[in-house]
Design goal:
The complex is a heterodimer of chains A (about 250) and B (about 140). The relative contact order of chain A is 0.10. In chain A, about 30% of the residues lie in helices and about 35% in strands. Chain A folds into two domains: about 130 residues, Response regulator (Rossmann fold, 3-Layer(aba) Sandwich); about 110 residues, OB fold (Dihydrolipoamide Acetyltransferase, E2P). Chain A starts with a strand and ends with a helix. Chain A has about 250 residues and is α/β, with parallel strands linked by helices. Chain B is globular and about 40 Å long. The chains are: A alpha/beta (about 250), B alpha+beta (about 140). The interface between A and B is medium-sized, with 22 and 27 residues.
């Protein structure tokens, strides 16, 4: 099982691609990695990107979308194909090339949610563990005085970048770890830990409130004794919204 | 039967040195039509060649604003309308979402409303909320360059 699955969007209409990207971006485990406006562009993109699913329009200007699906199926990734089209009459042909699903435009939030839920279940059942999962941290070794302490991750409140090092703030004390914030972030479970700002990763289970700060910015208040407030960057607000599903 | 209405109000005004195009969308206050506000942003943004991150922020904010009125309105859904006004400048966009309110107003609609406003405020540069009887206005601006 992977944390996220990678998706391509192929549609010749830019607003349609944009709307589909918006609908897919509401799902924390789907990451749109590329868009193409035509078949040739899609096939070129598919050769150069690793991906798990393609959302494919049928009425493309150069090559028929069903033909594109057949060609993609011969590639190394052999992705799941979800057809997205304004016409329902292609459905039978689409399923002949093993379509995972067939969505008729305009695609509603509820319909895409159904497709994504089913897709994630299928992908989770078939995907092999990634290298990231093998190396995922369960406890963190930090140095304090002359001894090495093994911290359980659920005791950690947040991580703060300090140059090439990271300040680890946990219940009961803070420590300096010999990792960069970026490398730590890659080894943490993204369901529990969230990069709320370029200098901070927070343990979401310790966040009690989202609070307003001066200059129209927001912060995450923790449930610790000091009521620590960490900044929430604008860029990460959308991501947090997905993560908390509010 | 007219399900939604593009009022065709596209006008141009001068604000300082920035030419502002005004586009208005009026639609039923039901979830199925919220996508129209996002599609309008996508189409306008495509013309203006905006950065995808900015477009994504604007779409989330307008979706939250429309949803607030859909959640808050007490009037029958079929009769209620949401009006979305886009003021599209070279460097800055302002979007006003006008819709029906419940008697308790917008912010009183519960935690969901509070969180939605947090999201809008975080994504926009400035946000203004006003009420006029049973009509509410959420107006937010965002630098786009």
């Amino acid at each position: 099982m992977k944390d996220t699955y990678r998706a391509l969007i192929v549609d010749d209409e830019a607003p349609a691609r944009s709307e589909l990207r918006f609908l897919l971006n509401r799902h924390a485990r789907i990451k749109v990695v590329g868009e193409a406006s035509g078949a040739e562009e899609a096939l070129a993109l598919a050769e150069n990107l690793s991906y798990d699913v393609v959302f494919l329009d049928i009425n493309l200007p150069d090559i028929d979308g069903i033909e594109v699906a057949a060609r993609l199926a011969q590639g190394a990734d052999n992705p799941y194909v979800v057809f997205v089209t304004a016409y329902s009459e292609f459905a039978v042909r689409a399923f002949e090339v093993s379509a995972f699903d067939y969505l008729v435009k305009p695609v509603t939030e509820r319909r895409i949610d159904q497709t994504v839920d089913r897709l994630l279940s299928t992908l989770d059942a078939t995907a092999r563990p990634t290298q990231d999962q093998h190396s995922r941290l369960e406890r963190l070794a930090v140095n304090r005085s002359d001894k090495t302490v093994l911290l359980a991750l659920h005791h950690i409140l947040y991580f703060q970048a300090e140059g090439d090092y990271t300040r680890v703030v946990a219940q009961g004390g803070s420590y300096l770890a010999n990792y960069s914030l970026k490398s730590l972030g890659e080894r943490l479970d993204s369901k529990e830990f969230f990069r709320c700002h370029r200098s901070y990763i927070v343990n979401l289970s310790h966040v009690s409130e989202i609070i307003s700060l001066p200059s129209n910015t927001y912060g995450l208040q923790l449930a610790d004794e000091r009521k620590t407030v960490l900044p929430l960057s604008r860029r990460q607000t959308r991501e947090l919204r997905k993560r908390l599903e509010f | 039967m007219t399900q939604y209405q593009d009022t065709g109000e596209a006008t141009q005004t001068e604000l300082g040195h920035d030419t502002v195009q005004r586009v208005v969308l009026e639609m039923p206050a039901t979830p199925a039509y919220v996508a129209l506000s996002r599609l309008t942003i996508a189409a306008l943004a495509n013309r203006a060649e905006l950065d995808q991150e900015v477009v994504a922020d604007l779409k989330v904010a307008v979706t939250e604003a429309c949803s607030l009125f859909i959640e808050a309105g007490d009037v029958p859904r079929e009769a209620a309308a949401i009006r979305v006004e886009f003021e599209v400048g070279e460097d800055r966009w302002t979007i006003s979402v006008i819709g029906p309110l419940a008697e308790h107003g917008l912010v009183g609609a519960g935690d969901q409303a509070g969180l939605a406003l947090v999201v809008i405020q975080a994504l926009a540069d400035d946000v203004e909320t006003r009420t006029d009887g049973l009509t509410g206005i959420i107006r937010f601006g965002r630098a786009v360059r």
